Amino acid sequence: MKNHDKYHLIFAYESRIFVAMENANTNPKMEEWFDAKLQKNEMVEPKDWMPDNYRKHLIRQISQHAHSEIVGMLPEGNWITRAPSLRAKIVLLAKVQDEGGHGLYLYTAAETLGVSRDELLDALHTGKAKYSSIFNYPTLTWADIGAVGWLVDGAAIMNQVMLQRTSYGPYARAMVRICKEESFHQRQGYESICHLAFGTEEQKQMAQDALNRWWWPTLMMFGPTDANSPNSANAIKWKIKRESNDQLRQRFINQTIPQIEYLGLTVPDPDLKWNEEKNGYDFGTPNWDEFMAVISGNGPCNKERLKARVDAHKGGEWVRAAAKAHADKKREMEFAA
Amino acid sequence: MSDSQGPIWEVFVQKKPGQPFVHCGSLHAFDKEMALQNARDLYTRRSEGTALWVVPSSAIVSSSPEDLGPFFEPANDKVYRHPTFYQIPEGVKHI
Ligand SMILES: [Fe+2]
Ligand SMILES: [Fe+2]
Question: Are strands A280-282 and B8-14 parallel, antiparallel or unpaired?
Answer without folding.
Answer: unpaired
